[in-house]
Amino acid sequence: MELLEVLNEDGETTGKVLDKNEIHKYGKYHKEVALMLLNDKGEILLQKRASTKEIEPDKWAWHGGHVIVGETCIEAIIREVKEEIGITLTEKQIKPLVKLKSDKFPNRHYTIAYYSICNLNIDDFSIQKEELSQVKWFSFKKFKDMIYNGHPDIMFKNNENTNKIICALENIIKFY
Question: The pTM is what?
Answer without folding.
Answer: 0.94
